[in-house]
Amino acid sequence: MRRLMALRQRVEARLRLTQAYIRANQNYLLAQLRIWGGRMVFWGCGIVVGLAAVAFALLSDGAAERFAHAAALYPWMPFIVTPLAGAGLLWLTRTYFPGSQGSGIPQVIAEMKRPADGPWRPLVSLRIAFGKIMLGVGAVGAGFSFGREGPTVQIGASLMAAAGRFMPATLRIHRQHLLVAGGAAGIAAAFNAPLAGIVFAIEELSRSVESRMSGVVITAIVLAGVIAQYFLGNDNYFGRVVVFGESSELLYTILTCAVITGFAGGIFARMLLISVTGWKGRLAEFRSAHPYAFVVFCGLLLAAIGYTSGGITWGSGFPETKSLLTGQADMPWYYGPAKFVATVISYLSGLPGGIFAPSLAIGAGIGQDLVPLLSGQAFPTTIVVLCMVGFLAAATQAPITAFIIVMEMVDGYSLVIGLMATALIASAVSRMVSKPLYATLAEHMVRQQSPPPAK
Length: 455
What we know:
Its main location: membrane. It comes from Azonexus hydrophilus. It is found in: Membrane. With 455 residues, the chain is an all-alpha fold. It has two domains: 40-56 and 68-232, Clc chloride channel, CATH 1.10.3080; 250-444, Clc chloride channel (Orthogonal Bundle). It has helices at residues 2-24, 26-73, 77-96, 105-112, 126-141, 149-163, 175-190, 194-205, 209-213, 215-232, 250-277, 282-289, 291-308, 318-326, 335-348, 356-374, 380-396, 399-410, 416-431, 437-449.
């Protein structure tokens, strides 16, 4: 009995001390609670971005497979579905989801430059995120040559920006940091490559030292990647690919792949920029005056290209690229050029869709065409991988992000120096042909938002 009384007294004493400590430090504890609550919201949103990327991936892949299967059974089907679906998707985009057009990366960059006051049409929101997923899946499922990785950046930024209203001011995470974290988390989850997401945040989205160094931001990016790995598996984006190491004979291969893909990627980026910022002529006037008729025309062109090429130009190009990397099947020599044309036409339509995966597919097609020329210098898989990183770096002019994405996707750590050199050279060659794609498009979007000068 005495022992119980003594224990009770000790417990009561501890409770009194605890209560006294809480009363004395009430403000501090409440502040810490708010900070950790905000961090939990931030990290929880990173998990939500990962889940959204997984859902987007599964829906897109399923839609592309169903379209390819239906087109194989009914070859006439794309000539009806692709143009009509394109017109319907464009109407939905312009009517209900303005701001969701195109890749999504320029929108995030432009949103980071949003002025404090003045008119501004939002480029990131929950509505846009929903529309980006649904319209992106519809476009891929209708045969347009789009990827889902760029759109996932806008989706992630939209989700993270929406979560910002639940975060306390004491956490000191600015809206720009939320956009960076959400966009980078989207890349990490889309490519199943967390390191690529961090580098993308540094190279493409952020110019801020704070957001580069913030452990909270990096944690959200990594969480999105972990969620993607949990649901999609821990294999690389293209699975286990045999990539052979470097040798003294590889230098010629690197230079050849980098220069050719640099010029091709620069022309690709320049064509996309011209189509948005300075396209002139009768066809451009026709697109401006009759956008729905123009997207029907684009759909017919895509159906014709897909029909004549055996359906290899529809969708993101992931199955074709994987077959080239694994050696399961060879593509026709015209795969790279045909995918190039199909992606440009798809972008001209004004529908939501990205160019990351199609760029990798185009690069793989170019690499296959260079294999006979360089077979004595490098293995075929090495040539394909080098051309993939070269074209992606040239198209985006983000060489560090490009080589890390490809390195993580194919487990190409033995080729890291070659990948880095190819990306840097190709990006430098591309700069002689075109301005940076995403930054230039973002500047154009900001100018469109600005009010006209007073007369």
